[in-house]
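Honest question from a wet-lab person: if I give you the sequences of every part of a complex, can you actually get the arrangement of the whole thing, not just the pieces? Trying it with mine:
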Amino acid sequence: MAKDFYGELQLGILGGGQLGRMLIQEAINYNVNVHVLDPDKNAPCRKLCNKFECGSLGDFETVYNFGKDLDMITIEIEKVNVDALEKLEGEGVIVYPQSRIIRLIQDKGLQKQFFKQNDIPTSAFQLISNKDNLVNASLNLPYIQKLRKDGYDGKGVKKIVTQQDIQEAFEEASLIEEWVDFEKEIAVIVARNDKGEVSTFPMVEMEFNPQANLVEFLIAPSLYGVEIQQRAEAIAKKIADDLQIVGILAVEMFLTKNGDILVNELAPRPHNSGHQTIEGNYVSQFAQHLRAIFNLPLGDTRCRTNAVMINLLGEPGYEGLAKYEGVEEVLAMEGVYIHLYGKKYTKPFRKMGHVCIINDDREKAISNARKVQEILKVKA
Amino acid sequence: MAKDFYGELQLGILGGGQLGRMLIQEAINYNVNVHVLDPDKNAPCRKLCNKFECGSLGDFETVYNFGKDLDMITIEIEKVNVDALEKLEGEGVIVYPQSRIIRLIQDKGLQKQFFKQNDIPTSAFQLISNKDNLVNASLNLPYIQKLRKDGYDGKGVKKIVTQQDIQEAFEEASLIEEWVDFEKEIAVIVARNDKGEVSTFPMVEMEFNPQANLVEFLIAPSLYGVEIQQRAEAIAKKIADDLQIVGILAVEMFLTKNGDILVNELAPRPHNSGHQTIEGNYVSQFAQHLRAIFNLPLGDTRCRTNAVMINLLGEPGYEGLAKYEGVEEVLAMEGVYIHLYGKKYTKPFRKMGHVCIINDDREKAISNARKVQEILKVKA
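Yes, you can. This is the full assembly:
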């Protein structure tokens, strides 16, 4: 790299939410000059960077102007203007992950086709251009319909079980996927630097909130056998290599009841399934992302202990200025680490923070996490 | 506390250097609104807080105006205008550590008298008002002369060995202390909250750079026997109780060759002897300071593993825009964590950052740290 990443390099982050915030907490250790673009003038990163710009992530001119004097750009959200990033790349700005990867991952249909073309195990699927295609779908009911673009955190996803559901399906260009009767949702975060070094974090197990379709409970490391873990990690490494990505990539997978692993979705950035690495592992996903994009040796991904991550979601029924209940009580417990995201207003299921609970005794980590879930509430 | 410390409370930090910077890295987790006052417009904290004000820490009006609309003030340096803090306390602003403690600790003479009055073991000493008093000093040569005020990091300290040295001694009001032929310099960081809860970090061992008189090498936890560790920790707890301090307090001590422990100096704030707690302990000194001043339950101070801290000092012979040599090489090593302080310019022995080296094998941690010391350099 022409410039030392410490002190001189100007790094832009597209998106100023919690992922950017935690990335900045780590970037401080390396004197990185951080510029942030986010449409929300009260974004969590706004007071923690060298320059904060309020503007649309989807607008070509805004993203291009934000990036044109920077040395490097990374993202904390996929939904950004890729044409602008492509132009910036052409003009010599380093964009990690590369714009072509963001473009691929923005479209769940292209993602699925990529899996198929590269022999990456995934559920059967069909791309449809509108709702009418569902009448003659190649898949049997039930299946999942996902909008090809702009879905996130469970938004843009519908389960189609009955003929009635077909009537109420999304109109737009979508992907339908065979319903997977999985045993567990698992994830592996993989990092790759420009030298081609690739490294995975140990596989984690997730439980979702069925109402909000958000990760509610994550346990690391997984207790599944070595064979399953190695298979999941090998899949993640293969994807990183196939993509030739620079940066980190979260690979969300299903472990089916008969032991198959099917890739569900990718996220080419720090991810909710890696927050526990801050306290739980030798390097965090945020430190690893910085090492990867700055082409430094990748760090030690091993777990230091058992870690459970719970999302701190806005309590249903409350909307307005956030109030946190139970902080004092949970901080009196052993191994509890609270991360609030600097969001002034809460609403039902909004991600307001997360808590990591560590313990050398795995069952104790889990029971403490359940306790924290009962005590700690975000109300208004 | 009237306001929740998260989201609503406005916290001021007097001083915007590396200690404030690492305190902010932790305060981000609790949505603390941070205001910083520092005389250097390029201070390490300047881009990491809600509001940065450039101004003198010693000026009454500046400190008073900075603090008058805040809810709480803490410090990262003792050399601040205490009269302003006292007035602010009188008007209802919470100042932790309390202004009376900062006043006491600013004056090394008062500190010594406090030790004596409270039966805290310390070396024999005498207060002198000017150099002439040295002719009839009650202590035998050699002894240490310390300016009562404004000394730090070895500045304002002289070893007086010969009659010639007496001629060249400091003119000003000073403290002279019996020369202690110590075996090891040790430190204990203690925290106390307003409920009166007191907790110590495990004792650490330090080695100083004789040229710069700065901590150069710190090892935690100490390998001295439990009896010595408990005695050192009991002394630190007693001081915290005697002072009724709220916040953290670093207690620097000498372990003498015949096994006595003598208190050398106090620092009522995060301290260089606690940086390794970020990676080495369950809670860091920065997290503990926040817990203490916000009257939250104190955290778990145990060591997670062996940690060695080395200061990254400006290389002698170089002055100007800082360049870091060897970063890539040391990041390829196991358990190496770099913390740069965001200082643009280096000069000989300036504290530019620190590195924490952890390892479950203590000897390996030490040898890796020695290697980092050889490889990593700050030049210009």
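Two things worth pointing out. The domain at 182-379 of chain B is CATH 3.30.470.20 (D-amino Acid Aminotransferase; Chain A, domain 1). Chain B has three domains: 10-95, 124-178, 182-379.
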